């Protein structure tokens, strides 16, 4: 008697997400996913209608993960509209950073996942109920979306060199930059710090994201009716 765990829609999507987290969105195919699950690719079509259906399913799963992260925020994060919106963005960013291929997947879909419509409606309500016009809410949605999905970690990751960093060469390049670009080199020297993230090699992308988000929220405050 076979002890193989039966395939389900959820199990297929979970395996697809694990695969893409590990190897990137470009690695995903029905054949590759079938191999990951130990089944023939044709078996997957009983649960998802081909690769496009698989990608739509992944987009919906990511949207659900974002809305769940937002729903799980403590009440203290919602003291006022700005705190509420800020914590929403940070909760969503946590998911995007966990799955850095999220922006590329959402951009390739024909429409946003259905579960995201409620999220968007809640953000619009947050604006309108706190004195913003619908026009400002519309523009703010675009601005916040661009910040959230355009500030993805993968956009700032340096190319893989395939070897150890040549510290002597790097030092020589920095000295040359200091001579020709004094203000840029001074800023780099001032901002250089240790970080677990590879963002641009020397920027803390979380700090930069929050800095930009706070600037945007402060600017929106001035547009309240």
From TrEMBL:
Pfam families: TetR_C_1, TetR_N. Keywords: DNA-binding, Transcription, Transcription regulation. The lineage of its organism: unclassified sequences, metagenomes, ecological metagenomes. Residues 6-66 form the HTH tetR-type domain. GO terms for molecular function: DNA-binding transcription factor activity; transcription cis-regulatory region binding. One of its GO terms (biological process) is negative regulation of DNA-templated transcription. The keyword Transcription regulation applies. This is Putative TetR-family transcriptional regulator. It comes from hydrothermal vent metagenome.
